[in-house]
Design a protein that fits this description.
Layout lengths: L6 H8 L6 H12 L1 H15 L10 H12 L1
Helix pairs in contact: 1-3, 2-3
Length: 71
């Protein structure tokens, strides 16, 4: 069975949003289509270069939320 993957589906694989059973299909597709493997690698490399941000709220904001939740 010939199955092609869209860029959106490849991104879903990268972000871990696809069911595990789909990974076997992707692996088979990589073996059959080197261009697909290359495209996935380019997308993954771009994803890996994205900066990682850790957002931390101010302590006052946390205290305000906790105070509000007590009422």
């Amino acid at each position: 069975m010939e199955q092609s993957f869209t860029q959106n589906q490849l991104l879903e694989f990268i972000y871990g949003e696809r069911p595990l059973k789909d990974y076997a299909d992707l692996d088979d597709a990589f073996c059959a289509d080197p261009a697909l493997r290359y495209e996935f690698r380019m997308l993954y490399d771009s994803y890996a270069e994205l900066p990682v941000y850790k957002l931390n709220p101010r302590n006052k904001s946390i205290q305000d939320i906790l105070s509000y939740s007590k009422t």
